[in-house]
Amino acid sequence: MATSKKISLSEEELVSALKRQDTIAIKALYDMYSGALLGVISRIIQQTEVAEDLLQETFVKIWNSSANYDASKGRLFTWMMNVARNLSIDKLRSKDFKNANKNQDIENNVDFIDQQKKVSFNADTLGVKELVTKLKPDLKEVLDMVYFKGYTHVEAAEQLNIPLGTVKTRVRMAIIELRKNFN
Amino acid sequence: MEEVKAYIESGILELYVLGQLSARECNEVEDMANRHPEVRAEITAIELAMEAYALDNAVEPSVDLSDKIFSKIETANASAPAEPKIIPMYEGSNDSKVKRLKYALVACSILLAISLGALFSAHNELNVAKDQILALNTDKDQFAKTVSKLEFDKAGMENRIAMTETSEWTTVKLAGVNKTPAAKMAVYWNKANKNVVINYAAMDLPKADTGHEYQLWALVDGKPISLGVFNENSAEAVKQMETIQKAQAFAVTIEPTGGSVNPTMEKMVVMGAVSI
Hints:
Mean pLDDT of chain A: 78
Oligomer: heterodimer
Structural class of chain B: alpha+beta
Low-confidence stretches of chain B: none
Distance between the termini of chain B: 153 Å
CATH class of the largest domain in chain A: Mainly Alpha
Number of helices of chain B: 6
Radius of gyration of chain A: 18 Å
Structural class of chain A: mainly alpha
Number of domains of chain A: 2
């Protein structure tokens, strides 16, 4: 697939192909969004192998649960991103994952760090990284927790010991900063 | 409008896009989005920002991952059809059979109920009939008793009439003594052959208890001679006693069952002299 021409479809075409279980949908989605989704997953689960397993799971789930996606409620990517995030957070909190992490040996750690660096120095993301870094520390902290670390906003409020309303405001402020950059 | 602005600024839409809201809160947001285009536009703007952000933070997966995913989805597709086939527990033909059996069961139940009702009413009627039969039987017994009593009386009466109509028979009337003033009886004595006959229809004696019966005596020249015993439970209305050639009087005493050799004088109930 990597060598063949990348498929790109409009949002509407993607949705209707997915809904009628046409495999072209999954191929197009993979070409268009696999990197973005793996980016989201990798923020939560750092181990490449586990993250890629989760990406596989994410696509299988997108395929099998396409009936649950309601285009009137939001964009397809938002739905897919939340599928990926939820699977990753479930994994992060699962018992076997926690145990495996405790027993991580040095060799794996080296790998792990290398991969982290590879991600960190991904040329494509450099700009955003800088942007996120440029965010005020209190905004960055909340966005990191809610978006990257898999905290719920309630948990983030408890962890940071700030009111729920403040968490909401800070998430909004952080995303507004991002919007200034992307929209 | 202020309300919508405040809603947008509350930060709830960001949490909605980040999948942080409960199902109830999601419905609220969707409701607001449907009613206010500004809310919808804001959500889309947030979504696009997050999408662009994610695309910019993309991490390229390993080259072989795509093939793994496609083959997994294709095999899952081939092995698991989208629509699970529903196989009925019974074939269609059996369905109608089951239906018919259901109707039959209902019909049987109704029949059973009716039968039980009929049985119950029949049982009641049978009881009524039994009672009636019992009553009729009692009546019948009563009638039979009455009839046999009447026949018994009639035989006695006929005999009495026959006796009085011929000149052959002498009627000796026995009357009660001091202790038994109401008692009376008739003894019929044939002048020709000297037969002695008593008639229950012409008899009114004090009751003898069990263990005692009546004994008829003839007084011949001052001596009592037994003419036999009799009691109330006679099948015949007329009873033939011993014959006697001559007698001046007849008397009845109450004696122990079987009779006595000599009369117990104080137990004499009736007595009458022969008038010829």
